Amino acid sequence: MPESNALPLVLLTEQFAKLPGIGMKSAQRLAYHVMSMSEQDAKTFADAIANIHSRVHLCKRGQNFTDKDICPVCASSKRDHSLVCVVESPKDISAFEGSREFNGVYHVLHGLLSPMENIGPQDLKITELLKRIEPEGITEVIMATNPTVEGESTAMYISKLLKPLGVKVTRLAFGLPVGGTLEYADKETLNEAIKNRNEMK
Amino acid sequence: MPESNALPLVLLTEQFAKLPGIGMKSAQRLAYHVMSMSEQDAKTFADAIANIHSRVHLCKRGQNFTDKDICPVCASSKRDHSLVCVVESPKDISAFEGSREFNGVYHVLHGLLSPMENIGPQDLKITELLKRIEPEGITEVIMATNPTVEGESTAMYISKLLKPLGVKVTRLAFGLPVGGTLEYADKETLNEAIKNRNEMK
Question: Mind giving me the DSSP string for B106-119?
């Protein structure tokens, strides 16, 4: 950045530019925006960032982020605790909760197996999942990792560990996205859609 | 946001969503990213935001953001202090400095006249500009506000105040963007390009 900028503004710009999906130009715009906020508003924003680590930790059951011992979903008496949906990250839970279809509980792996990036089973919350099965009376585990190479192999690996425990392991259905058109469907998706076709009633 | 999220994360997401150009989805991604940063890195980020107001203020001459009394541009002996470029906001200075063509100094208005938004001359750094002319020996003022209705009328208004002071007032040239094509130029730009045509040498 040119010398015309004050050093604290340059430093703040660099901080913003470290965030995912934010380039130098956007980062600069954000830094100027903070400068245009009231000092009190900037303080509130800064506090929200500074305190997040001390206030938020992992739920002892489902491993989702929470500010309590057990997160609201795991603590809810209205949810089906025999059905667990295994996801890669906490933001996947927001997607499921947004659809309002799923009434079971969750387990967050906090990553996917990836030999390329040196991420092995010990780096994921897999032991924590296995330990939940018996005490919580879990009867079905839905593997809801993304349909990528890492997602598939992680689902496969965990399902092999779960089956000996006598629990039903299922996988999210693959097929055409609702509202999508055949024209734009890729080959793999189309193959899955044909393979998993259902009888019309 | 669904109940599945920890309150501090919801609050942080809302803080990010207040920033310009960041929607709820991006804001959530950024909040999760802060959660994945080390506690020390989050602290550094928060401090950069919290301290910006106390560390950065307006340069006493050019009104740009600075952490000193006089900003480096206004203090530089290598720049032409008789030539002042008047801009709407500090980020416009970065654009000029990036082009490395301009060697004068700047004056930041911190806004444009806008009767619609109730912004009058007293809300801009206009008096500060008029006070600089004589003591600093300024001979030319380039009005470099954007070519919008507000930018044009602000330039016009200020030029009328400057002319009685015996200073030359100029306006940035309008025309085709370099590298652009006629096909995509709008009518107004094309009209300006014809009106301001130059003899080829």
Answer: EEE-SS--BGGGTB
Per DSSP, chain B holds a count of helices (H) and strands (E) of 9, 6
Residues spanned by the domain of A48: 7-55
> Do B94 and A3 count as a contact with CB atoms less than 8 A apart?
no
What is the distance between the alpha carbons of residues A53 and B191, in angstroms, rounded to a whole number?
57
- The answer to whether the Cβ–Cβ distance between A67 and B8 falls below 8 Å is yes
The domain spanning residue B16 has which CATH number? 1.10.8.420
Count of Cβ atoms closer than 10 Å to residue A166 Cβ:
9
- Residue pLDDT, tens place only, B152-182: 999 999 999 999 999 999 988 888 787 777 7
Nearest residue to B128 via CA among B112, B110, B148: B110
Torsion of CA A100, A78, A59, A64, to 10 degrees: -10
A177 and A110, same structural domain?
Answer: yes
CATH of the domain at B167: 3.40.1360.10
Q: What is residue A200's predicted lDDT score, i.e. its pLDDT?
A: 67
Does any CB of chain A come closer than 8 Å to the CB of residue B174? no
Residue corresponding to tokens 């057990």:
A70
Measure the CA–CA gap between A111 and A121, rounded to whole angstroms: 10
For residue B114, the Cα-to-chain-centroid distance in whole angstroms is 16
List the single residue in B with minimal CA-CA distance to A32: B91
- Cβ pairs A/B, distance under 8 A: 159
Tell me: do A99 and A195 sit in the same domain: yes
Say whether both A106 and A41 belong to one domain: no
Chain B CB contacts of A26 under 8 Å are 21
CA distance B193 to B173: 9
Q: Domain for residue B69, yes or no?
A: no
Task: Report, as an integer, the average pLDDT of A39-63.
Answer: 94
My answer on whether A113 and A180 are in the same domain is yes
pLDDT at A4 over 80: no
Hey, what are A92's tokens?
Answer: 């996947």
User: Which has more pLDDT, B7 or A180?
Assistant: B7
Shared domain check, A195 and A129: yes
CA separation (Å) from A121 to A84, A87, A126?
19, 15, 7
Angle at A115 between CA A114 and CA A120, to 5 degrees: 70
Pairing of strands B65-66, B57-58: antiparallel
Residue type, A80: D
pLDDT of residue A1: 44
